[in-house]
Write a structure and sequence with these properties.
The chain has one domain: 3-Layer(aba) Sandwich (UDP-N-acetylmuramoyl-L-alanine:D-glutamate ligase), CATH 3.40.1190. The chain has 9 helices and 9 strands. Helix content is 41%, strand content 20%. The protein is globular. The longest helix is centred in the first third of the chain and has 21 residues.
Length: 287
């Protein structure tokens, strides 16, 4: 009887280990590469790793950039973006997707088709239009395509104040009331929720507003005085995707992501990277 019990305990333990291994959270970033490592694909993968999520990547563009600005952009062919999507999703059990820099119409169309083909619904869309340095990353003619083809496929989109204004062809919001009004207008584009980020605002608190169809959440944190903000938006959106991949609901994932980014900003001056606007400290909790 004792041997039988030991046999059962062994197999139950091994079964639990196997089940845990099968439940490894996986998130995918579909975005551009930042050669300086502070934003884009590199920031996303660092964020996934820091938050305990396995990260895969689909590269939409290569950039020649550093902490001072973007020098050149080389877009991936739409067909190659589609090939990456099929390679990743046919093999990996993906729990969440983050979409960042998508600068060309053909690439946007390939991504929309890929999301539909692989039935991905846990999608965080960061409508990246301008880099922290001020360089434009989304071709003007692709803006309407993004609104029409990707916004309806997003669980949540995460525009900052200038991006929200550009998507709506409106002035930049100056108050929380205007932020909420713009967020509600962006819901009409089709996402299930909109997170309007207030990092470009003023005041002692940095306030983000999560606007869902039947819910509203205000998230405030102390504004951090640092010039090292490169990749902040990429990091926040990928942190939300990481939370979703681990099973958090949207509001929980957004709150956890804001806490993570706030801490990464607060620790940004502990590392010295480049001579311009340096990155946030993705590994502030472990380094």
């Amino acid at each position: 009887m004792g041997v039988w019990l030991l046999f059962r305990i062994y197999h139950l333990t091994m079964g639990s280990r196997s089940k845990a291994a099968d439940m490894t959270p996986i998130a995918v970033t579909i975005a551009g590469s930042d050669s300086s490592g502070g934003a884009g694909i590199q920031a996303d993968l660092k964020t996934f790793s820091a938050l305990g999520v396995y990260g895969a990547s689909i590269i939409t563009a290569l950039t020649a950039q550093n902490t001072k600005g973007v020098r050149a952009i080389h877009d991936m062919p739409a067909e190659f973006v589609g090939a990456q999507i099929d390679a990743v999703f046919s093999d990996l059990d993906v729990s969440a997707v983050k979409i960042g820099m998508v600068s060309q119409r053909g690439v946007i169309e390939a991504i929309a088709a890929g999301l539909a083909r692989w039935q991905q619904t846990m999608v965080v869309l960061d409508p990246v239009m301008v880099a922290t340095s001020g360089d434009e990353l989304l071709a003007p003619e692709a803006r309407e395509v993004l609104k029409r083809m990707l916004c309806p496929r997003a669980l949540v989109m995460t525009p900052n104040l200038p991006e929200a204004a550009a998507l709506l062809d409106a002035p930049i919001a100056r108050t929380e009331g205007e932020m909420r009004e713009q967020g509600e207008r962006l819901l009409a584009l089709g996402p299930q929720a909109v997170l309007v980020k207030g990092g470009h605002g003023s005041g002692a608190k940095s306030v983000d507003l999560l606007i869902e169809r039947k819910a509203f959440t205000r998230l405030a944190a102390d504004r951090i005085a640092t010039r090292n903000t490169h990749g902040t938006g990429c990091t926040l959106s990928s942190a939300i995707a990481a939370g979703l991949a681990k099973g958090l609901d949207l509001a929980e994932a957004v709150r956890a992501a804001k806490d993570y980014v706030t801490a990464a900003l607060a620790a940004a001056d502990r590392i010295e990277i480049g001579s311009g606007q340096g990155p946030v400290h993705h590994f502030h909790a472990t380094w």
